[in-house]
Amino acid sequence: MRCANPVDLETLVAYWLGEVPEPRAALLEEHLFGCASCTRRLEGLAALAAGVRAAVKEGMVGMAVSAPFVEAMQRAGLRLREYRIEPGGSVNCTIRADDDAVVSRLRAPLGGVTRLDVMRVHGGGPEERLADVPFDAEAGEVLLIPSAAWLKTMPAFTMRMRLIAVGEAGERPIGDYTFNHSPS
Ligand SMILES: [Zn+2]
Question: Domains, the chain, ranges and CATH?
Answer without folding.
Answer: 9-45 (no CATH), 59-181 (2.60.40)
